[in-house]
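Researcher: Going back to the complex we discussed earlier. I've cleaned up the inputs and rechecked each line, so this should be the final set. Can you rerun the prediction on the complete assembly and write out the structure?
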Amino acid sequence: MIVDLIPDEDQSAIEDTIVSFLSDMLPVERLRDAASHGGAAESAVWSQLCELGLFGLGLPEEQGGLGLGLPEEVLVARALGRNLVSPGVLAQLCAPHLTSDESVRDALIAGEARAAFAIDQAYVLDGEGADWIVVFGPGGASLRARGELTLAATHGGLDHTMHFERIEGGAGNTQPALRLEVLIAAYLTGIAQAATDMAVEYAKTREQFGQPIGAFQAIKHSCADMATRASAADTQTLYAATVFGAGEDDAVEAAAARTLAKRAAFENAKANIQTHGGMGFTAECDAHLFLKRAMVMDMLGSDSRARRAALTATA
Amino acid sequence: MKIVESAQLKQFREQCRDWLADNVPKDRPDDGEAMRDFDLAWQARQFEGGWAGINWPTEYGGRGASVLEQLIWHEEYALAGGPPSGCMFVALSHAGPTLIVSGNEEQKSRYLPTILNGTENWCQGFSEPGAGSDLASLKCKGEIDGDDLVINGTKIWTTYAQHARWQELLVRTDPGETRHRGLTWIIGDMQAPGLEVRPIRTMAGLEHFAQCFYDDVRIPLKNVVGEVNQGWKTAMTTLGFERGTGTVAHQIELATRVDRVIEAVKSAPGGADEAQLEMLAVLKSEVMALRSMTAASISRGMHETVPGAEGNIVALYFGELTRRVNAAAFDLLGPHSLERAGYNYPAHFLECFKWAIGGGTSEIRRNTIGERVLGLPKGPKAV
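Model: Rerun complete. Updated structure for the full complex:
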């Protein structure tokens, strides 16, 4: 199959719109203020976010969507990852695909009903104010009304900028959700890219031994490896999105994207901390936020055992 | 981002597939004159079939294929088990394109047809013992004497020098200049008196490259391509020719190799454990990413006229990945990897080291990515 992986004009316009909105309204620095944690910053700009028309991007027009596809959604998901936007916004992008109920779908597309993710039938992420929960479990995901679930408070989680609630007593069946796998890969890729950019920027400005540390090959090569890992994850994710549903093996394409996006996000987040030296170990520096978010986001959807099985299946 | 399909491309693919199925030769000798004869004969056959110079313009006898047609050709070529271009590689991918862009009409009409029809092949003469990664420090000397350039010095890592008819030779013609200035690109005659070629055996056991020694070798000045002392410019003009399609065959071959290792490990007694499956899953993901990165390079090639430094990312990824893939068989199959179902794992493993060294080491590529893609400062300065 021949693919053109360069975004066309319309795709670039969608990406530019979300990127510029996020850079104005939801910069990563917002997370230094606890008042913006747990999806609060996103809630504060919710009506403007809905006006961008992101949530029906990949749905057919007869279902109230814009009739575009996974490539456009992936560009949005990657931008969300770059700015560590609350996963609830990504859940909102996914949720309309998981229901056949027209009124629920319309409300989700319009942003009148809110969605959030749940990890492994156990933890809801940034779920305050959500009406619907995209619950991941063995084999995929399902959309559940928040009111149907029994939720309990937790004493926190790995990422202090997020809000976690525990689901008591299970959450029912799931259906295959390969589309969501590709979107999670895109979010993780965004983290990998943002961590690279942050490390490169610091390497250009931080001086030791009388010159920017980026002049030293130890740092320069680490940055080059970060860019290479991010590029591999990114192009595989774009490829998986572009050929999705067109006859290639979506499960294998998605598993490859997830595998590489996870590695790129984890490794680049760690390398970014290391590049920042002592500052990188402080709470004040944003570097640790990328690692924490990557670790939580990777808990969504498939686990590595399922991906291994898909990738090593032989004919 | 979209799938590109058309009836015309589909028809082109079928045309490639049919011709390759009938014509691809098997059992390429892996060394010596038999290998050279095989490579030239295969080139001649492609010429007769109208496939020679797939990316060369039609006005110079090439196929003039579009970027997408080139991609299809290379895909079908790899799937049909087509041999490497081998002794024809430099002529087709570097010397020919350089002449097309920078040569004069006389040079083009003399040298291009014999490349396409497989009667004459070329080697490269750029690297020297003291000028490897730092190519611009090269010292091999060219002095103008009458109508000739008189060459003295040495070139090394010259792939298939002992089998080549002509050489793209980069020499220092202005001793007062340093670095990229004062160099000249000239068509070297591999049969000229005073030239000695000593083959070098590689760690893989084959004599695929050589060192060339020049002792008052006289080359007519009419062989200069571009201007005297402007050789660096001539050497760089071929960049615009590269559209990312040249690596398609390597990428497909590597992907096939991963599938072969997966198959072998899973069918070994006791099967594969989770740790082994994880290693295989990562390699499988990585060769898929390499395919996607190649597709992205080709996509850029469709939209841009001259490729940027991003090509170094794909080259670095390929060089490092090919080592991991070829080493995996030994980690996963143990002694079974010495010989298995007629497949020569050791030969591939030993040979693959070249990909992270030749044409730019992984370290130089990381410098280039750091400086030209990411904008990091050059350096470091002495402290």
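Model: Worth noting: The radius of gyration of chain B is 22 Å.
Researcher: Good, that matches what I expected from the previous run.
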